[in-house]
Amino acid sequence: MPSNALSSVKEQSLQKLSHYGPVTSLKIFKSSLILAGYGPILKVYSVDKASNTTKLIFQKQVFGRNKIHSIAVSDEGKILVCGGRSFAVLKVDEEHCKLQVGSERAINEWIVSCAFLNETTALILNSHNTVYKIDVSQWDTEDQHFSLLEEVHCNEKSILYSGSIRILGNGDVYVAAGTVMNGVIIWNYHTKQILHNLTDHEGSIFGVKIDRNGKYVVSCSDDRSIKLYDLETAQLLATGWGHGSRIWNLDFFLQMDADVKIMSAGEDCTLRFWQYNQQESSLDQLELIENAHLGKHIWSSDIDDETLGLCVSGGADGKIRVHDLQNRGTLLSYSLVEISKQTGLTFQKNEIIKQYCELEVQTLFLTSHGQFFAMKANDSSFVKVTIPETLSKEFNNFGIMHGFKQSNSAIVCTRTGALLKIAFADEQEPSFEWIIESSSPNKVTNFLSYKGETSTYMFTDCPNPQIPFTFHILDHRLKIQKTLTLAQPERTFTSTFMHIDETNNWLFLGSRHATIAIYDLNSNSNANISLQVSAVFRKMCPGDTITSISFIEGNHNEATLLVTVRDGIYMYVKFSRVEDQEEFKFTILQENKLSKGFLEGAMIKDGSLIVYGFKSSHFYIWNETKQVEITNELCGGAHRKWELITYDEEADIDYKFIYINKSSLFFKTFKGRFTDANYGIINEGTHGREIRDIAISPVAYDDGNRLLLTASEDTTVRLSSVDTNGIITTYWCMNNHVSGMQKIAFINEEYAGSTAANEEFIIWKLSKLQASKVPVITEFARLPPSSDIPDLRIMDFTTIESTEGDIIVAAVYSDSSIKLWYLNTNTAQFVPLVEDRYTTCCILNVNFIKVKGQVLLVTGTTDGNVTIWDALECFLSTTDNTVTKLGPMLVKQQLHQSGVKALAIQYNDNDIHIFTGGDDNALVVSKLILSSNEVILEPISFVESAASSTITSISLVSTNKIFVTSVDQIIRLWTFNGEDLECDAATYTTVSDTGCSDAFSGTTNGTSLLFVGGAGLSVWK
Amino acid sequence: MGKSSKDKRDLYYRKAKEQGWRARSAFKLLQLNERFDLFSDIERVVDLCAAPGSWSQVLSRELFQKQDKKNAKIVSVDLQPMVPIEGVTTIQADITHPKTLQEILNVFGGEPADFVCSDGAPDVTGLHDLDEYIQAQLILAALQLTTCILKPGGKFVAKVFRGRDIDLLYAQLSYLFEQVICAKPRSSRGTSLEAFIVCLGYKPRAGWQPKLELNKSTEEFFRGSGIGKAENMQYLELPEDERLIAKFIACGDINDVDSDATYTLDTLDKIQSLNPVQLPTAPPYKRALELKRLGQANSKRV
């Protein structure tokens, strides 16, 4: 049996630049630091309570292989970190900004939890319910001689999933042990006596804690419940139900004098706060933070409600977030009775508040019966707005009101399109002025406005398609400068949103059925003739009503706009036309669909895309760029009058959401305590599930950065950029796939492709915004599935460019199918060329080889074979519309015992080498020999045990140099010297389920960046 | 996913139902046997972590029906209750308990076992290092019973996950067996880390007397066995672990059904969807699901 010498080879030649992965432990330290076990790396963040900012002050990999699963701190500030069998003692020297790190030490068992008994003694609870008492006084000496003083146990060595040690003020020490099969065991460390065996849970115990006063025990298990016990009596006090899956973490609040409160977090990515009310058998769920992390699993959390007023959570997505416990915004509500009392207005029985708008010092309201009142901003009191009855009756049953803060005025539109201006001045009654008197008998269905840089614009819609729209251009004091009529587009057009591009003087009107119309306001200044529509783009995307249009960037003859569709789609659309030509065209640069109910609008704020809308009974505001929820409000759902007002950075609040629920008026204000501190994200992360494939763009930007595409088990595709230091910045998280992903790859600079289960195969188009240089991505083409119920996985794909600039695509399937298409880059259509089949086994890899006038197709399969077909004929027949078979099978060679998991092809001057890695741990180099009459694949080098587990990927780094990943979590660089494979370097990676890689060599400095993906993502140099 | 779509995706699942196996894992043992001839010369067999019992079914058919060994004894042990299988003694017990060992020995009339197998796996959490540790503990628990009951020269087969520390286990097993092979049956999915250690030729450690005792951890059990398990160092330094790579052998005929492939049902006669042979047992979170269905789970948001 060969020994595993290949697990550590010249480790120093590989340097880890960055890592994103599961956050395995968190600890708030003395209300000033947050300690995070980021896999084997300890990260230390300082928390500034005044500015609410956090800063990474140290990070250091403290363990070679093990992840940090628990952290304990001593009174004097020593830190004990444990994980796997390893532990280490450290100290943060804040004064000298130093992290003093002791060496990695180990016991012979998995460690469940740890604590400091005193400054020189550590207690380590192992997975067999035994506490190791260890003298750590020598931790900062040269030898670091630790000695095991005693193994303390309660004579019940059940195997544990969880546990904790509680040291009380009076010196009592309790061990709370969460067993795999026997419930919770509470025992006394000093007496070694079992106090209680709590067996109310079903299944394994995943968390158990004793509060700092030693009065309560809380535990959670596989049964998804939380149980609170009295520590002294072992009486079950209450149970909390609500988590949708397993709970991994529990903690008591620090302040427990008045109420018993508990925080919990788990697999469902929610954080929940619970309160125990005496005499109630259920814990009361006080608050729920949903989508705290992406994908699955909050692995770690801690809470400081006492001083910092926050809790911190760490997910499988690699993110560390702080959540505010204090300032959660205000909610004020007023019933009509209350408003009536304050204003002196009498409301009719069926009278409701219809319209409102926020002005300079008040918010103005209009009722269904034409009454106006205002709420003063300074004291939130309601006052009547006296309006002559002749005016008031115009708004009986109809009135659409828009507010204009700058001029402290509102414009109200009547049913016939007359516009009344209500202008407020300091301490005076408002003035009323008709700026448009109604002249038409036609009803108005919508009144839209837009405030531009130079002018303000107003628009009234009419349901009769023969009657033109009316459009006014006003100055900022709301004086009409010009009025135009706009001929309605053909076919029904219900306007829903208006935007003006003042650079080009274009009017954009959003409508239903994802339709946008453009009027060129330059083209006609004759008031007597209606302006004709310049372009109508119908069904620009799936979905219905356009809910918002706003500006992203523009230029002469082009405007890129952010468009939202109620069904959940947001797009960046570039509208353009050629100088002196009338025809407009549009290109969708970015399109994504949110699975968040109704999307009502979007904006760019501090470089983040913020979207908002309704999901079931909630209104939400979501930061799409950062992938975090900003706030939500239980308002009853989408069917109500509502208004979202956004404030700039200097304001006291970020957002105000005004809505009506059950005829009462609600004002929800929100100020994110950590909005300016990266929304409380103190460490950026990656996908929420395992990464299945990684692709690096073939060409670098000028600054050396490259684009990075990752595909995950969470079905999303993330588009990021990576700099030369390995720091990853994510721009987009695309939801187009709905099935578990298989492969992602760049086709060239402009296109990429991705495949997944259920026959999903998407071709993506990549571009870049001009001003901000933000990369954008959109689905360019999608392969139609071959059956109504597609259940095949598309395992891999490969492409080759045709002479016409189109793309020939080959894909391989889980049912052994091989298909080729001609992808026309103008029409985005897949034209089938070849449908063939290998055997019945699953095909894992496919590649084209184009050399010396030949085109070959190479596959690797689960039966261990590498097979090569002649595919040249398929290319010659691209013009006729027949679907053919592949050319003759030239080679079928078994190289591995089972699945060929990885396959990479290298072209040298005269040789083609195929590197393969298998489920059988082997690495093989084969030489492809092409002669005029035959093709031979000759294995020339073979390493039987190139890893201790499945080899999952091979990436070419440079000539004859390959980067190999395997499930044993060792990454290896191999060089092929023409005869043998030699392992140049091998080192451990903390990325488990190690499944994919990519690599590139820098063109200038010659360093290579290596990417490893799995349960996390690491970048090595 | 309905029953039929799982049938389509997984031909072994369908075949298991057709052939009356309680789980598709029956094929894994059958394919291991095809390659390693595990079932010849065995009479006394222990199947650990046996529920729902497909491996016991395989052993029962093999020894009693095929080989007609009237004296064969098969004992299946699991913490979960198991529906009885003809000719198999089922024991609902903890495999780490000394009483369990005694019960098995009683069935065997005090004679040692010829073959011990375990297809056990814990529920996974998603923390790979923890899951691999728990699986390793399960194998060590099976192995400690094995060292107490297996005859010299006997065989041991167990499910493993080929994760980061699998080479530690290979190293330890190599002290106890003449041959240690990592075998991957074709019926085990290529996308899964699952494989089986096939350990042939048990060689008891000289001078070490394995003894199951109550409240002794697996570490304590193997203390002094000299199988290369790291013990506590004098000053708790990080020990150098012994690591070995076991030979990998894929087994099952290359033309057998591929567990990673998707098959078309049309090719398989138009068969009705079959009910599983054995229904799954109730999960611990059954009540949580019931409460959710009734809308009684606390879901208040503020």
UniProtKB/TrEMBL annotation, chain A:
The WD repeat ranges on this chain: 198-239, 856-870
Keywords: Cytoplasm, Repeat, tRNA processing, WD repeat
Any one Gene Ontology BP term: tRNA methylation
Entry coiled-coil feature ranges: none
Entries under Gene3D superfamilies matching the protein: YVTN repeat-like/Quinoprotein amine dehydrogenase
GO cellular component labels: cytoplasm
Keyword Transport: no
Pfam families assigned: WD40
Subcellular location: Cytoplasm
PROSITE patterns reported in the protein's UniProt record: WD_REPEATS_2, WD_REPEATS_REGION
Family indicated by similarity: Belongs to the WD repeat WDR6 family.
Protein name: Regulator of Ty1 transposition protein 10
Automatic annotation (TrEMBL), chain B:
Catalytic function, reaction form: cytidine(32)/guanosine(34) in tRNA + 2 S-adenosyl-L-methionine = 2'-O-methylcytidine(32)/2'-O-methylguanosine(34) in tRNA + 2 S-adenosyl-L-homocysteine + 2 H(+)
Location in or out of the cell: Cytoplasm
UniProt entry keywords in alphabetical sequence: Cytoplasm, Methyltransferase, S-adenosyl-L-methionine, Transferase, tRNA processing
Pfam families registered for this protein in UniProt: FtsJ (PF01728)
EC number(s) recorded for this UniProt protein: 2.1.1.205
Keyword hit for Methyltransferase: yes
Matching InterPro entries: RNA_methyltr_E_TRM7, RNA_methyltr_RlmE, RNA_MeTrfase_FtsJ_dom, rRNA-MeTfrase_E, SAM-dependent_MTases_sf
GO BP terms: cytoplasmic translation; tRNA nucleoside ribose methylation
Domain Ribosomal RNA methyltransferase FtsJ, chain residue ranges per copy: 21-202
Keyword tRNA processing: yes
Family (UniProt): Belongs to the class I-like SAM-binding methyltransferase superfamily. RNA methyltransferase RlmE family. TRM7 subfamily.
Protein name: Putative tRNA (cytidine(32)/guanosine(34)-2'-O)-methyltransferase
Name of the coding gene: TRM7
